[in-house]
Specification:
The protein has 284 residues and is an alpha/beta fold. The protein has helices at residues 2-14, 29-53, 105-108, 125-136, 156-168, 220-223, 259-274; strands spanning 63-67, 70-73, 76-79, 83-85, 89-91, 117-121, 140-144, 172-174, 179-184, 190-194, 197-202, 204-207, 211-213, 246-248. The protein has 3 domains: 1-58; 59-87 and 228-275, FAD/NAD(P)-binding domain, CATH 3.50.50; 91-211, FAD/NAD(P)-binding domain (3-Layer(bba) Sandwich), CATH 3.50.50.60. The protein has 7 helices and 14 strands. The longest helix has 25 residues, at 29-53. The mean pLDDT is 97. InterPro entries: FAD/NAD-bd_sf (IPR036188), FAD/NAD-binding_dom (IPR023753), GSHR/TRXR-like (IPR046952).
Length: 284
Amino acid sequence: MVYASKYSHEFDESNGFGWKYDTEPKHDWSTLMANKNAELQRLTGIYKNILNKAGVTLIEGRGKIVDPHTVDVDGKLYTARHILISVGGRPFIPDIPGSEYAIDSDVALDLPSKPGKVAIVGGGYIALEFAGIFNGLTSEVHVFIRQKKVLRGFDEEIRDFVGEQMALRGIQFHTEESPQAIVKSADGSLSLKTNKGTIEGFSHIMFATGRRPNTKNLGLESVGVKINKNGAIEVDEYSRTTVPSIWAVGDVTDRINLTPVALMEGAALAKTLFQNEPTKPDYR
């Protein structure tokens, strides 16, 4: 989707390099979605193949931990010396009136049609990535952030530069605005009410306001795995939970939530458990 969104800027710039075309290039959303889904299926197949070749048994279903050494998957029990929880996180939508009309980043990856006018709530990198995608695919994009600037926690010059460049591309920023309610009109369009007023006419309102660990209904509390108030699993410096035979890595532990970090934590745990080489994850 990022690649797809870059072409519109290339088309704009190509005129100055002598490219001429009689009609403006048109984008077909359904072709992009169909090809994206086909590619995801291909990748899923590759991952399953890697697991298979490595001698891993893949069991697909809803897993629930029933005791320190047993997992129930759709009524069938599996026992093991060690259990690793690596279920990641999921997008979080704040509980405001009308929040049922909002979408999250998972839904945004799979929309049946291109947004006409989209509100994106949040100023982190997921929010900005989608703002860039929809802007490049010629949607009207409004970004609402609580702060004065985007990318809280990033380098100050980068924050300024990214905000300026995105605004030059036509993305409209609404700073120091917090969403208070979403209202659906009779024509199906959405309005976003904030502490500074109401903006109408959105086809989609997307929240990119952080993620939460995906720990609901895994049976963790009943077996004594300690979870903090955010829903994250508490682990020691070797990724062990409060139950000695149960371990956790990745976003579900809410340490540093990035894909390469989860891979590194998993590799460290494999050494600890199976190579007789206790290894702490190295975050440097």
